[in-house]
Amino acid sequence: MAAAAATATLSDDDAEERVAATNAQMMLLTRKMIEIRNTLQEISTGGGSRSLTRVQLPSIVVVGSQSSGKSSVLEAIVGHEFLPKGNNMVTRRPIELTLINSPDAAAEYGEFPALKLGKITDFAQIQKTLTDLNLAIPDSEAVSDDPIRLNIYSPHVPDLTLIDLPGYIQIAAADQPESLKSKITSLCDKYIASPNIIVAISAADVDLANSTALRAAKRVDPRGERTIGVITKLDLVDPGRAIDLLQNRSYPLQMGYVGVVSKVPSSLATRASSGLLSRFSGSGDSGDIGSVIAKNEEVYFGRHPVFTRALTDADDRTGQQQVTLGVINLRNKLMRILERTMAKNLQPACDAIHQELEETAYQFKVEYNDRPITAESYLAQSLDSFKLSFKEFAGKFGREQVRAMLKSELDQRVLDLLAQRYWNRLDEDPDLALATLDDATIKSILRPVSELPSAPSDDVYWHRQLDACVSNLTKSGVGRTSTTLVSNALSGEMEHLVNSGAFKTHPYVKTIVQDATMEILNSRFYSTADQVENCIKPYKYEVEVEDQEWSKSREHAFALLKEEVRQCEAAYYKLQRSVGGGKKLSQVEKFVEKSRKGLVKMEDANEIYGFSQALIDKGREGLFLTKRADILRLRMQALKSKQCKSKDSKYYCPEIFLDVVADKLTQTAVLFLNVELLSDFYYHLPRELDARLGHGLGPQKMENFAKENAKVRRHLELQERKQKLELAAEKIESVIAMQKTRRLQPA
Ligand SMILES: Nc1nc2c(ncn2[C@@H]2O[C@H](COP(=O)(O)OP(=O)(O)OP(=O)(O)O)[C@@H](O)[C@H]2O)c(=O)[nH]1
């Protein structure tokens, strides 16, 4: 019986029901206030708020020297071991602990809101994470005032917010910075400032006059209005001495002292207990360490009548300071105190929220004309704008553009073939010619193209040259080349569009667009290339030419040669400048020519003539360009001649005939590229983007996307701030209303 009395007389059924009802009501209020406090905290972290920082709802802050039993008390309240342990000063950052009573929670779990690790049901894992987060502060710094936020959900905890701080030290250890003591003190000072409630922990076996926690509390709360003294390790001193300590007269506290024995006794550590803590939730035995400790305290205090007497005396109001015993009563007391002090701050907080809300609403009206925005609407708008620029591009890049692109590619191929089979002169320029010829051509000695206009019409040599060129051109993999060209052009343009349009500041979405582009293009690549190749097959055997086609190609071939001449001249001019003038270049060219005729020796170039190897190479290039331009001019004349007017002279005018072939290949390829690749891509890409960037993105990614744009981010943040303030105002008003109703109810 004595034991039951010592732990707050919970034996009587009526009393129990009353306590439960009060607890439930209190928890509802406290929870609402904690929610408001957290909302306000989010608003303050989201951007400097002037009026909100002035008024804040209080937190409970736990301070104590190292090894005073701080962790043991907190763990007894939570019911689990979860705080970092070790000799190496493991609490280096404030731990802001929010306990959330969740009666329906299937399991107890913790969450680190800033880390986004999800629910952690293994408390050993929570302990490890806390240890890692603390030890991430280097030994040289030892403490940081950047808090770790941890929420614990459980049916066995009350709604409470507690802040655990690094323990006070007397002197810094050898490996700790000198300034550590003062660093810890100023960190704690920051937290024990008004209006927070201070839980000052002192161990019974250490002289209270030396308690750093009580001394610090006295400094900031000299009248003992917001400090609770907690004396741990009562079992280590004589019970009579314990009672003396709990009635500490040198620092009287209005909320009194609470004595606890918060160590899990080894004999009880593994046994499920009577479940005293679980009375909070009305569930059965919790089996947590809180219950084990409570059971142990019940037995310990019951064993010593002096504790029962102290409680009775206090109840009788004999002038003694109020005495409270046990972790459960500490917990209840904390809840009551939190509620009371929060209630005191409710009206000022409510006023501050309203003031802040008014300012924010005004800003929102002025800057955004009350225009609401969502990440989703911003994404939809950006996607629409992107699709619009895509449509514009599609309008500009059609069949005609593909035709021009492919024709210019084939023109280049035709020029290369002509150079190989007609224009390179093996006899005059063996070095350069050899480098560009295939073995078969080298074997068939090239005849100078100047002989072509006067060759007999049945000259097999010239027939073979043209047939080889045509065969080479038609069998050069036009299907693959043309498909690659168009694919590259499309993916290049998409790259340009994402880098310049609505998505230019959105790297994640850029990748999605590029991936979708590549997937569509790749999936069509082989079938398109095969279809094009199939359709140009007939030209591999026979090419029929119309008069009109011939004359069109005659003009085009002439223009091509003219452009080639221009390029030769430009290159020659550049070469002249690079060797220091035309005179120098022609000297070197002459030397190279003489050496080809055997009139001078190449080995003497440097020593006798002072021409470096680089200069000789340039001389060779100069000679090549001059001769190439001569041949091209000759060929231009030929194309203009009467001989090349008729399509029947195809062997005399290979430039024209090859252009006809290139043109036919282009026209046929474009037909299929347009249908199979271009139109298909233009049709599918917008649909694919709708699928990937619509709801497929998910709310978090959508928000991340929207906030990548600084302007939108500001708009969204201001809007969120306004919404949070509205919510906080609504909640705080309902809490104030609840308070009023409670006050009106009979006790
Ligand atoms: N006998 C007894 N030992 C206790 C009691 N409370 C805590 N201890 C022991 O005292 C030691 C220190 O307790 P902690 O809870 O780790 O103390 P702390 O203040 O958190 O220590 P730091 O984390 O180092 O600051 C541990 O060995 C506990 O088991 C108690 O009420 N009675």
UniProtKB/TrEMBL annotation:
Q: Where in the cell is it found?
A: Mitochondrion inner membrane; Mitochondrion intermembrane space
One cellular component term (GO) for this entry is: mitochondrial outer membrane
Residue span(s) of domain Dynamin-type G: 54-348
> Per the similarity annotation, which family is this?
Belongs to the TRAFAC class dynamin-like GTPase superfamily. Dynamin/Fzo/YdjA family.
Q: Which UniProt keywords apply?
A: Coiled coil, Disulfide bond, GTP-binding, Hydrolase, Magnesium, Membrane, Metal-binding, Mitochondrion, Mitochondrion inner membrane, Nucleotide-binding, Transit peptide, Transmembrane, Transmembrane helix
InterPro entries from the UniProt entry: Dynamin, Dynamin_GTPase, Dynamin_GTPase_CS, Dynamin_N, G_DYNAMIN_dom, GED_dom, LIS_MGM1, P-loop_NTPase
Report which reactions are catalysed by this protein.
GTP + H2O = GDP + phosphate + H(+)
An example of a GO molecular function for this protein is: phosphatidylserine binding
Q: Which residues form a coiled coil?
A: 702-735
Q: What is its main location?
A: mitochondrion
Residues covered by the GED domain: 647-740
Catalytic activity, EC: 3.6.5.5
What GO terms in the biological process aspect are recorded for it?
cristae formation; heme transport; membrane bending; membrane tubulation; mitochondrial inner membrane fusion; mitochondrial outer membrane fusion; mitochondrion inheritance; receptor internalization
Note one Pfam family from the annotation: LIS_MGM1
**Protein's UniProt name:** dynamin GTPase
Q: What class of enzyme is it?
A: hydrolase
